[in-house]
């Protein structure tokens, strides 16, 4: 019997591809009419190494992000046939420390340095796994002159350059969608909104809504990779989070390059290429 995967986003498609490559038949559900059409492409494409999670003093979030980041490029090479050298990446990400950060500034700086140590430690023996980047390069603290050239030094008190990079999420989605759509072991059920999942003795029953009406299917295993409605579907199985759920709101503004014209000053997109973030 096939494995059902709920959600045709990045997580669902990667899971489907990994299972299919091991000879397991997969049925992939998504409420949209195409795969990877929502959150998978509406993001900055950052492959996080954990630097921005200073609110977690246990470093568990950072460790999770580091491990996932180091496995990401090898996954693309293994299942999509895309070598790390073919993947275009952004410039290295810089983080700034805002004067109004509610946490002690020394604690934030210590956090960044410890995360960088964890990154270097995790990369030992697989130094080029993160898109060919050398993760042993020391964390660079911006000089006062560099910081003052771009920011108000009274507002941004410190700035650090990290090895974090982003990739183009639309390019990735296109490659992944092609592989999933053409895999003989993956059946896609697009336009199916999953309503609930129920355990029925030795099987798991999925109830979904489609343009043709209600649909009910039975499976032995189900993977919930939904982005929209994940917790609600989990609750139909009696599964609830063991702690309060955290929601992070991000505002991401993207600007394409303007038509070529002579200029001695860097364009706005060129300035934004640093992917600078203010730690708040």
Structure description:
The protein is of the alpha/beta class. Helices cover 30% and strands 20% of the residues. It has seven helices and eleven strands. The protein has helices at residues 10-21, 60-80, 105-122, 144-150, 169-181, 230-236, 268-272; strands at residues 3-6, 26-30, 94-98, 140-141, 156-161, 186-190, 193-200, 203-210, 213-219, 221-224, 277-279. The protein has a four-stranded parallel beta sheet with strand order 6-2-1-10, with helices on both faces. The longest helix has 21 residues, at 60-80. The protein is elongated, with a radius of gyration of 22 Å.
Give the averaged pLDDT, no decimals: 88
Distance between the termini: 48 Å
Instruction: Please tally the β strands and state the result.
Output: 11
The fraction of residues assigned to DSSP E strands is: 15-25%
Name the helix and strand elements from N-terminus to C-terminus, one letter apiece.
Answer: EHEHEHEHEHEEEEEHHE
Global geometry: elongated
Computed structural class: alpha/beta
Strand order of the largest sheet: 6-2-1-10
Radius of gyration: 22 Å
Fraction of residues in H or I helices: 25-40%
Could you list the spans in which at least 5 consecutive residues all have pLDDT below 50?
Answer: 261-280
- Specify the number of helices: 7
What does the largest sheet look like?
4 strands, parallel
């Amino acid at each position: 019997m096939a494995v059902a995967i709920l959600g045709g986003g990045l997580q669902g498609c990667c899971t489907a591809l990994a299972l299919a490559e091991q000879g397991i038949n997969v049925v992939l559900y998504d409420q949209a009419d195409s795969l990877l059409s929502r959150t998978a492409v509406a993001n900055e494409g950052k492959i996080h190494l954990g630097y921005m999670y200073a609110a977690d003093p246990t470093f568990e979030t950072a460790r999770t992000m580091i491990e996932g980041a180091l496995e990401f490029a090898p996954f693309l090479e293994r299942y999509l046939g895309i070598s790390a050298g073919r993947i275009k990446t952004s410039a290295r990400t810089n983080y700034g420390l805002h004067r109004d950060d509610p946490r002690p500034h020394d604690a934030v700086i210590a956090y960044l340095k410890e995360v960088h140590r964890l990154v270097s430690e995790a990369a030992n023996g697989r130094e080029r796994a993160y898109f060919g980047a050398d993760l042993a390069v020391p964390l660079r603290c911006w000089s006062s002159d560099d910081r003052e050239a771009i920011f108000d030094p009274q507002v941004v008190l410190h700035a650090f350059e990290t090895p974090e990079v982003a990739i183009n999420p639309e390019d990735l989605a296109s490659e992944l969608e092609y592989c999933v759509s053409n895999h003989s072991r993956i059946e896609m059920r697009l336009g199916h909104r999953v309503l609930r999942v129920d355990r029925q003795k030795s099987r798991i029953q999925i109830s979904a809504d489609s343009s043709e009406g209600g649909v009910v299917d039975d499976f032995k295993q189900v993977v919930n990779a939904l982005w929209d409605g994940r917790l609600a579907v989990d609750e139909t199985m009696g599964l609830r989070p063991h702690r309060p759920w955290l929601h992070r709101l991000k505002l991401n503004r993207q600007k394409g390059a303007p038509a070529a014209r002579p200029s001695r000053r860097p364009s706005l997109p060129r300035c934004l290429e640093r992917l600078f973030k203010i730690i708040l």
